[in-house]
């Protein structure tokens, strides 16, 4: 496996991390579950809806949400037992698998099904053509991370070789990428919402294209847990998945304005109009998964993207790291 994806600490944790069945105390008759989300983004609106609309509570779960910026940090938190469930890209579970984990990380409920980033240009471009990336300086994401791989996949699809046609900067920490672009680094950057919309409003950048549209359906952000945790807490994993599906249906049935009003507590520094435009972007391109099933076609597309990026040592087949039984049961229970 190539170095630099999850770091030496991850390898140590794989060897040292014993079976930690939970990291919080149960609250009364409710099961306490700590979720670590890879970033705070409107891309994860259904998760915030599940919390705010009381869907987790209805399922007997007491949710604690923490943000662990970056896939490497999120996976490290999961393996060490400081979180119970990770909301992160499926590629991280594959990297753990490639390191020979005795306690594999299992994808059990999908939240998003496309890349969630947008190509943001420093100058406004009325009619963007991908050839305009040639000779530019591109402020990219972490090597081996899903945003970066999906971004490179989209570039290659549109005739751009990211290794030779532009200068790629990848030495900036995930949490500082937006600030680096704002301070003058790069001609283009890859950003999630609502940051992309905020940049447009403030004149710091302009959305030129959607990497989600270009890269197709992927198990982009998925709820996952260690196999040992799932084995010991299958009842609560089912309850968790039921709540996720309730939220997915609610999001599908409501418009961007209604969704914004529910999730606004998680984005106190973002005005409502920006929230609405960001959510509308994600809804219009089908980024929010309709149900929590990680299907084989999406998984195979992920493996193809990773192979194209040179990040896949061996193909981890769908059945090895994906458990669809909880999602299928959630759908069956709802009657839809």
TrEMBL record:
Keyword vocabulary terms for this entry: Signal
Localization: Periplasm
Pfam families linked to this entry: NMT1_2
Keyword Nucleotidyltransferase: no
GO cellular component, one term: periplasmic space
Main location as per UniProt: periplasm
PROSITE patterns in the record: PROKAR_LIPOPROTEIN (PS51257)
Signal peptide: 1-21
Family (UniProt): Belongs to the bacterial solute-binding protein SsuA/TauA family.
The protein's name in its UniProt record: SsuA/THI5-like domain-containing protein
Record lineage: Bacteria, Bacillati, Bacillota, Bacilli, Bacillales
